[in-house]
Amino acid sequence: MAKYLDPKADLTFKKVFGEQKDLLQSFLNAVLPLKEGTEIESLEYLSPEMVPENPAKKYSIVDVRCTDNHNRQFIVEMQMYWTEDFLQRALFNTSKAYVRPLEKGDGYDELRQVYCVSIINDIAFPNLKDEFYHRYVPANIEHPENTIKGFETIFLELPKFRPSSVSDKKMMVLWLRFLTEINEQTKEIPAEMMENKYISKAVGIVEQSAYTDAQRMAYDKFWDEIVSERTLMKGYFRQGHAEGRAEGLAEGLAEGRAEGDRARQISTAMSLKQMGILSVSQIADATGLSEEEIDKL
């Protein structure tokens, strides 16, 4: 019986999508909102661009970059877990890829469309409970149907994906099933997946027997590092949350003390005013309130 590796890992993801142009082309045509007649017909891989390194998230993101026959650029990222700064990273990568080909003296018509597909093995948008597919484009707030062409970012939340939630894109369903259902515990591949030539080829690539012992060790190390990174990030979150609670408590106590002091000032000023012995200016000196505030009591 064949055994399989998880395609979301660094090693396997790059084997499937970073070395097989036909598989990457099939995947992109399946998940991107490309209009009829504008589908990708051929691809060429690009060298990864330099992006800001974060030692705490060294292993959590895997990406593949390419360009197609229409001179469009594509960035495909596999994100193993989600933090808010990943959203900014996706925007940075997409916008940088958009402007990078423009050299001094070039016209803006030299800019080419960029698509960034971020596959997230985590919950990124908890407020959108039943939606796993998120498309972002620059748009007019009052008239969102009016968009600015240039770049698009697609986020796919794998934990939210259910085959029944996609009714009209069979190929998207098959690719997302490949990413969510295949792992070390998989004993048998569903027939409908093996009947598709692209998915069948991808399944063959992630068979354990196709990898050397050294590659398997690298694969295991990847998952160990992901667990360590995730634990580290959760620790940072808990620490920040605890510090936030402590800071909030201190601010609340300070505000409470200030409100209590003011209440005592007002009460004292009202008593002195009712006695009719002191002038308004004398009451202001005694309580710390302004004469205007005392006049209103």
What does this structure look like?
By secondary structure, this protein is of the alpha/beta class. About 45% of the residues lie in helices and about 10% in strands. The protein has a 6-stranded mixed β-sheet with strand order 1-2-3-4-6-5, with helices on both faces. β3, α3 and β4 form a beta-alpha-beta unit. α2 crosses α4 (about 170-180) and α7 (about 215-275) packs antiparallel against α8 (about 280-285). The chain is elongated, with a radius of gyration of 29 Å.
Mean pLDDT: 82
Identify the strand order in the major beta sheet: 1-2-3-4-6-5
Largest sheet: 6 strands, mixed
Q: How far is the N terminus from the C terminus?
A: 87 Å
Per DSSP, what share of the residues sits in E-state strands of 2 or more residues? Answer: 5-15%
* Envelope shape: elongated
Low-confidence stretches: 50-57
Q: C-alpha Rg, in Å?
A: 29 Å
* Class derived from helix and strand content: alpha/beta
Count of strand segments: 6
Helical fraction: 40-55%
Q: Please identify the oligomeric state.
A: single chain
Q: What's the number of helices?
A: 9
The run of helices and strands is: HHEEEHEEEHHHHHH
